[in-house]
Amino acid sequence: MQEQRGAVGTEKSESGDDGLDRVYRQVLRTHLREDTGELPYSGRLVDLGIDSLATVQLLIDVEEAFGIFFPDELVTAKTFNTIGSLRSVIETLVDEKGRERGDSA
Questions:
Q1: pLDDT tens, position by position, 10-51
Q2: pLDDT tens digits along 44-78
Q3: Shortest CA distance to 81 belongs to which of 36, 48, 104?
Q4: Is residue 44 assigned to a domain?
Q5: Which of 5, 26, 2, 1 has its CA nearest to residue 68?
Q6: Which of 11, 35, 59, 78 has the most CB atoms at less than 10 Å from its CB?
């Protein structure tokens, strides 16, 4: 069972990594069949072993980790094509959630 996490901000750390990216990669790694080391944004999720069933579970885990909800129009092959395409959608949804709550970016 995965640990429940709240919504994550996008503050940059000194290493250039941010909280959103760190949590995203942590969630993503739980769905990989084996540790592939580096996860480039251009990496296709299907090439990493994320099949249709794993995509559904990944979607659920991402929603829980970031406290967001994917509207139906974003649950597409384009969204779940690459590590970067999914991360971009997550960042947009997290930013929208922050604006709705009145948080500063």
A1: 333 333 348 999 999 999 999 987 777 788 999 999 999 999
A2: 999 999 999 999 999 999 999 999 999 999 999 99
A3: 48
A4: yes
A5: 5
A6: 59
Residue 86 CB coordination number (10 Å): 24
What's the structural domain count of the chain?
1
**Full-prediction pTM beyond 0.70?**
yes
Q: Look up residue 66 and give its amino acid.
A: F
What's the CATH number where 29 sits?
A: 1.10.1200.10
Residue 80 lies in a domain: yes
Query: Which DSSP category does 90 fall into?
Result: H
Give the tokens for residue 68: 């967001």
Residue 3 in any domain: the answer is no
d(CA 87, CA 80): 9
Q: Scanning the structure block, which residue is given the tokens 């947009």?
A: 92
